[in-house]
Amino acid sequence: MRPLLQKASGLTETIIAAAIEVHRDKGPGLIECIYEWCLLKELGRRGLACVRRKPVLIEIDSHRRVVNPRPAGTLENSPAIHRWVVARI
Q1: CB within 10 Å: which end of the chain, N or C, has fewer?
Q2: End-to-end alpha-carbon separation of the chain, Å?
Q3: Burial letters for 51-73: b for 16+ Cβ neighbours within 10 Å, e otherwise?
Q4: Phi and psi dihedrals of 39, rounded to 5?
């Protein structure tokens, strides 16, 4: 197996196991931001460097707005796409 594919496979296994653990512990029915926070903590406990999404200031003409854009965060210094699928390793 190629080294990058092997790393991606290992990360995927860790992410899925962490998500299952959070769901087992917290159960269904919570809002997304709670699951996101719990998943970040669980991934960190498993040794993965995670950063929650950070606000970005958007300006157009004289209008300003702070938004929380996607991706949801970063995982092991790689941008993540739609929750925790690693875009690049």
Answers
A1: N
A2: 15
A3: eeeeeeeeeeeeeeeeeeeebbb
A4: -65, -40
| CB contact set of 17 (below 8 Å; sequence gap of 6+) | 46
Q: 83: part of which helix (H) or strand (E)?
A: none
Q: What is the pTM of this model?
A: 0.62
Q: CA 4 → CA 1, 20, 33, 49, 82, distances in Å?
A: 9, 24, 30, 18, 21
Side chain identity, residue 38: C
Q: Quote the CA–CA distance of 19 and 84 in Å, as a whole number.
A: 10
The Cα–Cα gap between 34 and 41 comes to 11
Q: Where are the domains of the chain?
A: 3-86
Gap between the Cα atoms of 58 and 11, Å rounded? 32
